């Protein structure tokens, strides 16, 4: 095959001109998308400026009272920065094109070999890491500052450090530069297409897509466990799952998932579906699928979730199964609300719940953990103002909050891949679920943030509802609590402290490896994450773990099932979904779960 001289040049020029035309069109769409962005209450965009003023005041007080300490910090920073600069300069001046030895800890952001063996990129990386260390050290060594404010300052300092990472900028990201050269700039055009598409999909708000939204269909390749919606009201759909065994345990299970996200995290695929696992062990399982709130739900509170969700589901399941008691399960905020419900039932003398299981559940908020920055008045006041304007807490605000707790993994790395590298988001079921969020009713959100998180009223026995004061000590049914060692949403030590305060005489606490999701969605067939058990719950959290028996690479699911079996009665013929009074309305996963957050 022969080519005409100049053909390649002509082809390259045509490709360049086509890309320029695409960029012009995309730039216009970009500006139009940004213009559609509605302003959010300013208090949601950062802390009260007084925080920085207090930090500066504390820093200067430190300077006045202990100048040697501050001087040492500055000298240490400049010493490391200049030392590294002169090492790199000396190597280059001597014709040595290899950087100095890198003895620091490994950082997955800098996995490209060029960060280690190319003088330019190595110099940038080292200077960034030296500066990051200096910033963190400066915050850590401020003494004259309230511990809560210091924790907040540490969080915002980390956000600044993470944002300024050289990987986040095209000119200092070797992966992005290499991809642009290899594709002759096509990756940048695709990246801009991805950026514009994300802005247009979210009315001008930059919400990075984490997964390919076209790769999954509810009920087809995700959320596929067979069942029927047997009841529906304004708050929930009640799904009863089809039995897979000829006989089942007499006492049914009612599982309450969080309404911050959708229930199918427990049914992503058959291999890791907790829902399928429970049914396969011979249990009648009901799962609540919560409504995705819109503005008409602005006045819905925790009391509505309890009345139209918990109490209604418990009553219906008892009727359909012809039993006096059920076993209840609550996950995250639904576990917190299950504890409120149990206190209410206790004070009413109602024994409908035989046992309770809590997944990553907080009930004692005396230590706000990593959420401290978001649970102070400046932020909660901002959320309340936003709710007063729209009636709901929109899903993307919650998603953004959770994402910034792990900004490198959930914001910057996906943004780099999508916008700099021009890659299509992966077809990953967990990330698809993570992006399929839910709006929260306004009243409920404020009750939760003010009454539970900020004032810790339930743990103090002062959470008022229906003329009663709900108290954590009223939670006296046999219970098991499963927390996750790496959980950054519901820290395990805080979960443990809440269980210690509960009034049950039969309490089991299990600590799973991994985090808020993987610690719970941990099927036995994976042999991936282990768990700790220790029957002595009078110990401090650290002593409890130190004295616990560790089961390496063993899921806690079989342990829980054995515990549950003892509280589930005899075997009876398997129950098909619904009954004469509650005909199936539609197949699982139902209709409420399909509603997307605005």
Automatic annotation (TrEMBL):
One of its GO terms (molecular function) is acyltransferase activity. NCBIfam families: PHA_synth_I. Keywords: Acyltransferase, Cytoplasm, Transferase. GO terms for cellular component: cytoplasm. It comes from Alloyangia pacifica. This is Polyhydroxyalkanoate synthase. Pfam families: PhaC_N. InterPro entries: AB_hydrolase_fold, PHA/PHB_synthase, PHA_synth_I, PhaC_N. GO terms for biological process: poly-hydroxybutyrate biosynthetic process. Residues 106-278 form the Poly-beta-hydroxybutyrate polymerase N-terminal domain. It is found in: Cytoplasm.
């Amino acid at each position: 095959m022969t080519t005409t001289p100049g053909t390649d040049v002509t082809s390259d020029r045509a490709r360049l001109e086509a890309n320029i035309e695409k960029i012009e069109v995309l730039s216009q769409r970009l500006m139009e998308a940004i213009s559609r962005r509605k302003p959010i209450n300013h208090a949601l965009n950062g802390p009260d400026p007084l925080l920085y003023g207090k930090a500066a005041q504390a820093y200067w007080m430190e300077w006045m009272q202990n100048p040697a300490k501050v001087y040492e910090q500055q000298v240490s920073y400049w010493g490391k920065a200049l030392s590294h600069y002169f090492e790199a300069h000396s190597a280059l001046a001597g014709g040595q094109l290899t950087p100095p030895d890198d003895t620091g800890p490994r950082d997955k952001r800098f996995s490209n070999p060029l960060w280690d063996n190319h003088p330019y990129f190595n110099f940038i990386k080292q200077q960034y890491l030296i500066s990051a260390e200096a910033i963190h050290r400066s915050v850590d060594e401020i003494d004259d500052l309230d511990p809560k404010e210091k924790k907040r300052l540490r969080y915002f300092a980390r956000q600044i450090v993470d944002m300024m990472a050289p990987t986040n900028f095209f000119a200092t990201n070797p992966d992005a530069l290499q991809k642009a050269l290899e594709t002759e700039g096509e990756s940048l055009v695709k990246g801009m297409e991805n950026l514009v598409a994300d802005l247009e999909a979210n009315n001008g708000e930059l919400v990075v897509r984490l997964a390919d939204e076209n790769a999954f269909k509810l009920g087809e390749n995700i959320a596929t466990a067979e069942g029927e919606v047997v009841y529906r009201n304004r708050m929930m759909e009640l799904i009863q799952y089809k039995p897979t065994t000829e006989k089942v345990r007499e006492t049914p299970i009612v599982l309450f998932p969080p309404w911050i996200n959708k229930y199918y995290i427990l049914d992503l695929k058959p291999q890791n579906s907790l829902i399928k696992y429970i049914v396969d062990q011979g249990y009648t399982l009901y799962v609540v699928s919560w409504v995705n709130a819109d503005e008409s739900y602005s006045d819905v509170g925790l009391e509505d979730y309890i009345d139209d969700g918990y109490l209604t589901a418990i009553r219906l399941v008892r009727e359909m199964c012809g039993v006096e008691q059920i076993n209840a399960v609550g996950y995250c905020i639904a576990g917190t609300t299950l504890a409120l419900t149990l206190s209410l039932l206790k004070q009413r003398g109602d024994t409908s719940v035989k046992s309770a299981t809590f997944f990553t559940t907080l009930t004692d908020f005396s230590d706000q953990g990593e959420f401290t920055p978001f649970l102070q008045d400046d932020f909660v006041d901002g959320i309340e103002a936003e709710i007063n304007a729209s009636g709901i807490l929109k899903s993307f605000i919650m998603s953004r909050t959770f994402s910034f707790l792990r900004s490198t993994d959930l914001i910057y790395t996906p943004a780099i891949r999508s916008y700099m590298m021009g890659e299509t988001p992966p077809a990953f079921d967990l990330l698809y679920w993570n992006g399929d969020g839910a709006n929260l009713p306004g009243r409920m959100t404020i009750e939760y943030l003010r009454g539970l998180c900020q004032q810790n009223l339930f743990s103090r026995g002062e959470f008022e509802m229906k003329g009663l004061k709900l108290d954590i000590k009223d939670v006296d049914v046999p219970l098991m609590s499963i927390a996750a060692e790496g959980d950054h949403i519901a820290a395990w030590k805080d979960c443990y402290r809440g269980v210690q305060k509960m009034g049950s005489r039969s309490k089991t606490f299990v600590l799973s490896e991994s985090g808020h999701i993987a610690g719970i969605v941990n099927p036995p067939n994976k042999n991936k994450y282990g768990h700790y058990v220790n029957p002595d719950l009078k110990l401090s959290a650290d002593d409890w773990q130190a004295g616990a028996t560790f089961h390496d690479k063993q899921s806690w699911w079989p342990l829980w099932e054995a515990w549950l079996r003892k509280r589930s009665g005899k075997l009876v013929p398997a129950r098909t979904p619904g009954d004469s009074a509650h005909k199936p309305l539609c197949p699982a996963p139902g209709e409420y779960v399909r509603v997307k957050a605005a």
